[in-house]
Amino acid sequence: MSKDLDKPARAESGNIPEHIAIIMDGNGRWAKQRLLPRFAGHTKGVNAVNKVVEACCNRGVRYLTLFAFSSENWRRPPEEVSLLMKLFRKVLVLEINNMCQNNIRLKIIGDLSKFDTELKQLIQNAEEKTAANTGLTLTICANYGGRWDIVNACNELIRDGLDQDSITEEMLSSKLSMAYAPPPDMLIRTGGEARISNFLLWQMAYSEFFFTDTYWPDFDGKSLDEAIASFQKRERRFGRTSEQLLESSE
Ligand code: IPE
Ligand code: IPE
Ligand code: MG
């Protein structure tokens, strides 16, 4: 590890990403490596979520967005899908007090219409209970797909009765399911794959990507610090030149 990476991310507290999005991947392979059923990896993955949420609170991250279940994950064996739904229900019930104690506002985004009534009710309760919290905004993406989000936003604009050629980028952004948050400054994907898998397609136009081989159940506060340290070494130019950035900071 380089000297720079060794430096705790907290050292540069002024440049903590405001919004971190994570594709939590590698649960199945984590379990397989230990000759355990895939589900053991998902259960262990919940511990990693707790660790990373705590780390984000401590480091002053404002928004943490976690990809928990994609619109494509229904293609998995039915037993795995049903166990994942059960785990989701359990987390919603067990973690809600913890979230309130830590001033966390919980949001769940995705096509929730596909969930059963009980789960929809739990989601609504969890959001309502934490709605007034002012600390970290934790968004869980469940039955989420970036394409679904964009199509949904377009349909809402049409429903509003907009004229042809009148749609702007700002208007479309305002109809996305995460319109309450700025776009992610950084995307982390664990588990060794280097793809987006239909996550926040629109909002990732200028996110900094950080891919790590670490399987999600092994990801913790230290891993997060490494990602943040990498983010802090990058120059975000948004189309401009380095010289222009230097000039504007003088
Ligand atoms: C991510 O881990 C969790 C979900 C997609 C629900 P995986 O289950 O995809 O783990 P791998 O990729 O098979 O190791
Ligand atoms: C992406 O992981 C979705 C989540 C982490 C919820 P997958 O494991 O489903 O992604 P692919 O299928 O390998 O691209
Ligand atoms: Mg996977």
Describe the structure.
The protein is α/β, with parallel strands linked by helices and 250 residues long. The protein has a single domain (19-151, 184-234), classed as Decaprenyl diphosphate synthase-like (Undecaprenyl pyrophosphate synthetase, 3-Layer(aba) Sandwich), CATH 3.40.1180.10. It contains ten helices and six strands; from the N terminus they run H-E-H-H-E-H-H-E-H-E-H-H-E-E-H-H. It has helices at 3-6, 27-33, 38-59, 78-94, 96-101, 117-130, 146-159, 169-175, 221-232, 242-249, and strands at 19-23, 63-70, 105-109, 137-144, 186-189, 208-211. Strands 3-4-2-1-5-6 form a six-stranded parallel sheet, sandwiched between helices. The model is unreliable at 1-11 (pLDDT under 50). Bound molecules: 3-methylbut-3-enyl trihydrogen diphosphate (2 copies) and magnesium ion. Magnesium ion (MG) binds next to loops. One 3-methylbut-3-enyl trihydrogen diphosphate binds at residues 23-25, 67-70, 73, 193, 195, 197.
